[in-house]
């Protein structure tokens, strides 16, 4: 039961606090001093430093003179957007014949004290003696967020009867002040984002009347540093809109607006505050120093670590002792092996992002290659720099998916050189046999698993014979094709040469008879005969005849 009562009291307190925050300040037309009914008050200036205090008269209880003194803020308005703040001090005290009035002083930093005496007439004091009376004044000017010290004393001033407290005036977070106090009127910004054109269409409402308005884009880092885009909206314009171009949708890129008055309060809206992924760009690598660096464009609380991305998925395993906290300063990882599997992991809150700067292999320092110079395969390590590597031969088993390393060797490779690993074909072509290679002469390096998938299930000797036989058969077929093509070409050439020779011989040794046409009864040509006769023969006989059909 007690717990339920406590919860109800807490919830009621929260509701009252929320209502007080949203509730507007009380308006007054003119400042005034009010005293309890029947108590006549007169006001006159006073001084902070009074003469020496007097000893209180006998019978005056010094601890029960002042009761429930309250301090609050009210607004005095001369127009919709022309309101100012006033300090209201309400004093309750136990009036006696020896107390003639109340002295109230307000003290602010850098300003002179403002003191006034509120004295009671003798007749009204006599009527109210022994009663609790109230004095209220709201004529003290106060500025936004001003820190005020309030000192209340009796008049005359009795020793030991003083009430002192401090008060902080409200700031522009109050909605009522943002609408009616000129120093708090910033205007309301609304926007539409066009990511394709990289533009922000900004509209301004509720701005300070009869004043121009400034808009710009800025990067918020303690102060909002301008990006070069600044627009002035004229007070005469019926619609206050502007288009602001941007280059990147950074989370600290904000729209800032303010009225054209001295020391104007500015309002900021950040359209891309949740796009943290835009920060994980700009990773740089110095190949001479082997240094990997990144600098945040916006302030961000994040943890940056190096990790190794597995080939079989999107998992990136952190490298030992590589985590660094970052907020604003540039971070650098020195002596880094620029391998495609080495990545940077950015963690902010409960989300992580992976960026792999070496995936394009531009800076890859070394690699493993399998060559076949003669009748056997060789495994080489090719390096663009001078490096020291550890090379281990391991095998996976059905019992354990983790590759178990049997032995490890250390290999030193000179710049632009290669080293042949001392591994036999039988070792390389074992089932699930792999090489585990890691660079040792740097601080941060990944362990690369290189498996030989090109090895088949046949024994090395049989595989070699089969491949050699296939190779020989290919050469035989190519050679046979070349020979056949040569024979065909030679035959054609000889045929042409013999034809030319035979025709020349005919022209030198003989002639052709006149051709004879045979026709039928209807005078249609049936065939044509041409014969060649040998003139050297005693009885001329035709050597041959040619019959041509129509």
List its traits:
single chain, 550 residues, alpha+beta, five-stranded antiparallel beta sheet, 35 strands, 41% strand
Report what the structure shows.
This protein is α+β, with helices and mostly antiparallel strands. The chain has helices at 2-22, 122-128, 175-180, 425-428, 460-509, and strands at residues 27-28, 33-35, 41-45, 66-77, 83-94, 101-108, 114-120, 132-142, 147-155, 162-168, 188-194, 199-205, 213-221, 223-233, 241-245, 253-259, 267-269, 284-286, 291-294, 302-309, 316-318, 324-326, 331-333, 342-348, 351-355, 366-371, 378-383, 387-395, 404-413, 417-420, 433-439, 447-451, 516-519, 525-533, 542-548. The termini are far apart. The model is unreliable at 1-22, 457-471, 511-527 and 546-550 (pLDDT under 50).
Concise summary:
This protein is of the alpha+beta class and 550 residues long. It is 16% helix and 41% strand. The chain has a five-stranded mixed beta sheet with strand order 1-4-5-8-2, with no helix packed on it. A five-stranded antiparallel beta sheet has the order 3-7-6-9-10. Strands 20, 21, 22, 24 and 25 form a five-stranded antiparallel beta sheet that branches.
Helix content percent band:
10-25%
**Number of helices, counting only DSSP H or I runs of 4 residues or more:** 5
- Strand content of the residues, in percent? 35-45%
User: What Rg is obtained from the alpha carbons, in whole angstroms?
Assistant: 52 Å
Structural class: alpha+beta
Separation of the first and last Cα atoms: 131 Å
Instruction: Give the integer mean of the pLDDT values.
Output: 80
* Strand segment count: 35
Task: Give the low-pLDDT segments.
Answer: 1-22, 457-471, 511-527, 546-550
| Major beta sheet, strand line-up | 1-4-5-8-2
Shape: elongated
Question: Mind summarizing the main beta sheet?
Answer: 5 strands, mixed
């Amino acid at each position: 039961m007690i717990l339920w009562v406590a919860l109800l009291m807490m919830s009621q307190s929260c509701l009252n606090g929320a209502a007080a925050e949203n509730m507007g300040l009380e308006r007054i037309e003119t400042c005034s001093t009010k005293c309890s009914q029947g108590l006549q008050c007169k006001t006159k200036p006073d001084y902070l430093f009074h003469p020496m205090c007097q000893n209180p008269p006998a019978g005056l209880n010094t601890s029960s003179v002042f009761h429930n003194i309250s301090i609050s803020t009210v607004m005095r308005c001369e127009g919709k957007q022309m309101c100012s703040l006033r300090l209201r001090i309400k004093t309750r005290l136990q009036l006696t014949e020896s107390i003639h009035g109340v002295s109230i002083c307000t003290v602010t930093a850098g300003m002179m004290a403002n003191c006034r005496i509120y004295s009671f007439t003798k007749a009204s004091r006599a009527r109210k003696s022994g009663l609790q009376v109230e004095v209220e004044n709201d004529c003290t000017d106060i500025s936004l967020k001003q820190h005020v010290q309030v000192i209340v004393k009796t008049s005359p001033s009795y020793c030991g009867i003083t009430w002192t407290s401090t008060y902080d005036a409200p700031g522009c977070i109050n909605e009522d002040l943002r609408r009616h106090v000129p120093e708090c009127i910033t205007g309301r910004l609304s926007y539409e984002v066009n990511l394709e054109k990289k533009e922000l269409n900004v509209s301004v409402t509720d701005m300070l009347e009869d004043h121009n308005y400034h808009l710009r884009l800025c990067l918020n880092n303690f102060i909002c540093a301008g990006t070069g885009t600044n627009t002035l909206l004229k007070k005469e314009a019926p619609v206050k809109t502007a288009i602001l171009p941007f280059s990147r949708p950074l989370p600290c890129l904000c729209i800032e607006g303010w009225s054209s008055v001295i020391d104007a309060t500015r309002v900021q809206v950040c359209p891309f505050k949740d796009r943290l992924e835009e920060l994980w760009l700009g990773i740089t690598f110095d190949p001479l120093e082997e240094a990997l660096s990144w600098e945040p464009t916006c302030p961000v609380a994040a943890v940056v670590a190096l990790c190794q991305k597995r080939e079989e998925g999107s998992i990136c395993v952190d490298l030992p002792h590589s985590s660094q906290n970052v907020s604003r300063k540039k971070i650098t990882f020195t002596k880094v092996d620029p391998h495609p599997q080495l990545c940077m992991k950015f963690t902010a809150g409960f989300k992580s992002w992976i960026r792999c700067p070496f995936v394009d292999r531009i800076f890859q320092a070394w690699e493993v290659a399998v060559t076949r110079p003669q009748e056997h395969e060789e495994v080489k390590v090719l390096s663009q720099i001078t490096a020291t590597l550890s090379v281990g031969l391991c095998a996976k088993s059905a019992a354990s998916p983790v590759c178990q390393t049997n032995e490890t060797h250390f290999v030193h490779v000179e710049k632009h050189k290669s080293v042949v690993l001392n591994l036999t074909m039988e070792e390389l072509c074992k089932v699930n046999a792999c090489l585990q290679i890691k660079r040792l002469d740097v601080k941060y390096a990944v362990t690369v698993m290189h498996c030989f998938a090109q090895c088949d299930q046949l024994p090395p000797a049989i595989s070699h014979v089969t491949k050699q036989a296939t190779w020989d058969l290919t050469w035989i077929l190519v050679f046979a094709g070349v020979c056949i093509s040569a024979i065909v070409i030679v035959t054609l050439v000889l045929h042409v040469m013999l034809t030319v020779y035979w025709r020349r011989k005919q022209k030198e040794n003989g002639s052709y008879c006149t051709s004879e046409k045979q026709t039928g009864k209807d005078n249609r040509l049936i065939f044509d005969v041409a014969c060649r006769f040998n003139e050297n023969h005693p009885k001329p006989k035709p050597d041959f005849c040619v019959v041509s059909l129509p």
